[in-house]
Amino acid sequence: MLIKSRIENIDDYLFNEEVPDHYIPNYLLDQKDIFISSDNKFLRTKQLTTGGLFLVHAEMRFDSPTQIYTEVQGETITSQFIFYKKAIDQMKGKPNALYGKSRHNIRYIPTTTNEHEIKENIDYMYFLIVLSKDYYFNLIDRHSILHEDFVREIEFGNYTSFAPEDFFVTLEMRRVIDDMINCKQEGELKRMHTEAHILELLMYQLEQLGGRGQEQEIIRGDDILKLEEARDILKQRYTVPPTQKDLSREVGINEFKLRRGFKEYFGITVYDFITRLRMEKAKDLLLIDQMSISEVSAVVGFSHQNNFSIAFKKYFGLPPSELKN
Description:
single chain; alpha+beta; Arc Repressor Mutant, subunit A; 7-stranded antiparallel beta sheet; 4-stranded antiparallel beta sheet; about 40% helix
């Protein structure tokens, strides 16, 4: 498969790669880095290529609307993640401005040429995994019920998206992407690390796109930033946490969206998140700081030591007295 992309008013290709169609297990990764910076544009990419796989992580910002032209020759399955935020948000120090809004999908893209506009003064981060059919079906069995409809469209050769609309990127997906971006391994270990994380990322995508579409609607757009702000508040004030009603007012989201959205996005309820923060801190205070049980109980926000001991045993499976011994 041939994958090309170039940016308006930039002579060189963003990427222009001929990628073998076949999945080749022992084929080492080839890496390329590109950096362009001037008064009116910023572009940085990291690209990985191996048999049946092309991966690109790109960060970009332009001071005027800019076109990106992309051409694909051959059949590809693309796992696409896009993060975007106004550049001014980062400068103002807004919470969670690193990622801003996000969306993702999985697409089957046969030979095609398309054009996409990048808006001005928006920080974009693209994370694209382009797989040959052979590579994709080596990771996920062709006959798996996880992607029956998707595979049917692939067999017909029709351009298709796994879900009709893009969904937000979950915390688990972001963690996997960060691990891949910051991978320190080299050679064969890097290839193994990359393949394992691609499979994990696809698992999270298939889980979200294939099974819980209606539930995701409640936490699109700015709600994600508000949920992350709520999490940060709880991390700072877990010893005396606000009520869910007060927390929802503080971050500007209704209480229903806070409760349901927090569980959906972070994989844990607000109550259980507070409990986890308290218990993990308590364990450190007992083991590392060698504080007494009564001292720890007060520090992590319990009025009565007995209530703390019950909660600790429920969380860790043993009472705090046994942990200290």
